[in-house]
Amino acid sequence: MASLEIEAKSIEEAIETACNQLNVPKEQLEIEVLTSGSTGIFGIVGSKKARIRATVIEEGIETASEEPAQLPADAPSEDSPLTQKEVITEAQSVLQNILTRMGLEVTLQIRQERETLYIRIEGDKSGLLIGRRGQTLDALQYLLTRIINRKGPDKIKVVLDSGDYRNRRTKYLENLALKMAEKTKQNGKPVVISPLNAHDRRIIHLTLEKDKSLKTFSRGEGPMKKMIISLAKKDLPVEPQTESEG
Fold first, then answer.
1. 131 vs 128, 158, 170, 189, 213, CA distance in Å?
2. 108: helix, coil or strand?
């Protein structure tokens, strides 16, 4: 199986690089986090890059000389979906192992509502897991989601939180949306918010969707896109105002 180690600024960036170098989608890679990376003091001093080992998962390979392994009658099939108890147990085990390797002593609070798994990380240093604009938290959330759903289509959604970041982030984006909307109404010019992920863009959109005098849409390529707020009856000028998102 093709395998390589990748070093990058973040786990997510390392995974993307691995996909490009191995020329396969994320779904065909087995990802092992070797080093999660850190931004160091003030994001500068002592920063460390994230490092992963990516291995291509080879499907459909059979060896005629080998007999298929016999499973006990009560053993779950490899293709069988996990039960709710198994999902929670596996999520706790995987995440606890990752955090322990990062040198963090934390406790996990896990609850499942239908197909969404909510995990809260608590501890004195849990804030270190957030990262700039939640990038570290999002990377861990992505990895955990992929691991839990590895036996089939993505049915389980994971929401990972630390230090009540998700709630604080939502309130911040709602306030930002209202502030920028008011600015657009006052001067009639569109406002562009610096690149956001899909989840954050959705918060901006939902906050303003009932205001029919405005329209919101995304611009750009890739997972991070700019969010544009403009008057519904105005055409977008060539150079709209750009607002830096904090």
1. 6, 18, 16, 33, 36
2. strand
Domain 83-163, second-level architecture: 2-Layer Sandwich (3.30)
Using the structure block, give the residue that is written with the tokens 């490899």: 78
DSSP per-residue string spanning 49-100: -EEEEEEE---S---TTSPPPPPPTTSPPTTSPPPHHHHHHHHHHHHHHHHH
CATH class of 167-243: alpha beta
Task: Give the whole-angstrom CA distance, residue 178 versus residue 184.
Answer: 10
Q: How many of the other CB atoms lie within 10 Å of CB of 72? A: 6
* Domain(s) of CATH 3.30.1370.50: residues in the chain: 167-243
Tokens of 25: 């989608």
- List pLDDT tens digits, range 140-164: 888 888 888 876 556 888 898 988 8
pLDDT at residue 128, rounded to an integer: 75
Query: Over the stretch 218-246, which tens digit does the pLDDT of each residue have?
Result: 988 887 899 999 998 755 444 445 555 55
102-122 mean pLDDT: 86
Where does the chain hold its CATH 3.30.300.20 domain(s)?
A: 83-163
Alpha-carbon span 8 to 138, nearest angstrom: 16
Query: And the tokens for 238?
Result: 């060539």
